[in-house]
Prior knowledge:
- This protein has a four-stranded parallel sheet with strand order 4-3-5-6, covered by helices on one side. The protein has a two-stranded antiparallel sheet with strand order 1-2.
- It has a domain at about 85-180: Rossmann fold.
- It is built from six helices and six strands.
- It is of the alpha/beta class.
- The protein has helices at about 1-25, 30-40, 45-55, 85-100, 115-125, 165-175, and strands at about 70-75, 80, 105-110, 130-135, 155, 175-180.
- Helix 6 (about 165-175) links the parallel strand 5 (about 155) and strand 6 (about 175-180).
Amino acid sequence: MSQKKKQGGKSERKTLVRKSIIRRTRRPGRKSMSSALVDKLKPSQADVSKLLAAQAHLGRRKSHVNMNRYVWKRRSDGFNIINLEKTWAKMQLAARIIVTVKDPSDVVVLSSRTFGQRGAIKFAHYTGAKSMVGKWVPGTLTNPRNRIFEEPRLIIVDDPSTCFLALRETSYIGIPVIAFCGVHNNTRFVD
């Protein structure tokens, strides 16, 4: 009787081993495709050198609590260094969001700073988006009687601190916002 149990136990083990081998084998399909896609989305050496040349990794001495997760480390002189991996990932996400908007004229680019106005106008010119530069007029997104009333599907902001009134207005309506933030910015209404 004990020999029968041993033989039965061996055959059960063999089937379990076979099942586990079948489970471990990699099936072709989605996993191999996603790894190739992930490799394409990784930044190249040229991309990283362009970010470093533009000094996109340098922050200010003061950092807002909401932006601490993007700070890589603090230098000895007190300036914050921004994590470029997270910056690249957020740039990829922003590009994917912008591409999903069917009509480019439904994207609005806001810039209240004088240094960002030229970039906002150029971006709007080449992509077909609308640009709103200069002083923000309250009620542009919420008041249909306003002569410059807009109903965008996406808003891109150059600095959340200078365009804070516009960001608060977008929170009333639920329009997604993409913003270029520094370490010192509050990301309260930024998606």
